[in-house]
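User: For a reading group we're discussing how well predicted structures match intuition. Take Gluconate transporter. Before you show the prediction, I'll give you the sequence so everyone sees exactly what went in.
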Amino acid sequence: MAFVIVVCCIALLVLLLTWARLNAFLAFLLVSVVAGVWLGLPLQQIPASLQKGIGDTVGGLIIILCLGAMLGKLVAESGAARQIANALMRTFGPKYVQWALLLAGFIIGIPLFYGVGFVLMVPLIFSVIYQYKLPAVYIGLPTLAALSVTHGFLPPHPSPVALVGQFKANMGVTLLYGLAVAIPAIVIAGPVFATRLKRMRTGPLQLFQLKEDDAAPLPGATNSFLTALLPVLLLIVTTVMQHVWPGRPLLQFAGDAQVVMLFCLLAATYTLGILQGTAVKKVMQIYTEAVKDVAMILLIIAGAGALKQILSDSGVSLQIAAAMQSWRMHPLILGWLMAAIIRACVGSATIAGITAAGMIAPLVLEGHADPNLMVLSVGAGSLMFSHVNDAGFWMFKEYFSLSLRNTLLSWSVMETVVGIAGLAGVLLLDLIV
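Assistant: Thanks. Here is the predicted 3D structure of Gluconate transporter, as structure tokens, for the group to look at:
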């Protein structure tokens, strides 16, 4: 019966988000209250459960997500992202232009939130298409696949960071595993799959152009690359050092994701701000705008945390976990499947990942699966089959001026390939580690 109630609550969540078009945070709160009442929680306990769920979920995220948003915004506003793309284009040349754009999307996608990276890369993609007279979807899709993979697999993006917290995983190890899974997934879903789309016709719109002033001086290429990649480099280095010299308090402090992000933002404030002649006041305005951009994402994650806590306090999470143990299915596949189903229903990768995590977490915490790999498995499932209920689907359709059919055949299939390739990579890592 408990499982039926959870399914009904998820169905209600889907209806509120799709049919009623309710704000995701409000939808989560309403469904959380309904679930608490239906599952028999004392009425006076429901508000406390909501507060605890929101506090526990957002408390460990807010620093990383806000600092990550600030860093990403500065990388975009300073022109560092454009410098990275330009440098790669000069290095690879026309023959390997697709790979240059893919690598640019991957590097830029690490610090930037998905929507920002998408809007930033599309004008660059079209400028290359016009210059070399190349097929738009064939050239553009691999770049957007790279953005999608970084969004679903790699910290400091919202869903991976939230999943690391829920599964008690290690941020640095998850990042290392994530890179190992992400690169093959990008290659398969990007250049390999895109070879089938060379003849797909599109009419790119002239409306979408870079807002940056082309005459404005850009940061140096080395500066841009190092600043954008600094969080990844520091997390990898400190994680390796902690394995070599375990138990060192200084390394534990320096390797904490929050400390790493704070240091990287301070460094970026100088390298992409002060060093480029930008007033500190202007840099702080950029950071303020960045927090506004991420506010709704934080609220959505908070709402998902409230629902997770209701399920936990009612005991239904443990009941579902116990029932799942009798299913003849690998826990990593189960987590992936849950996220994939919710993604197909709701459309949001972040919501799909967090909601699935609340149901699968007891299995992970009981030691039935590697928490770092479960982060990636759920992340891969949350990217599956993007279609008409996903904002990214419509962004791709409109920017590339595609028919609905061709958008399904290109974008939706690409996202599905990413999800399947990601799961395959996770299962392979599970055999090795």
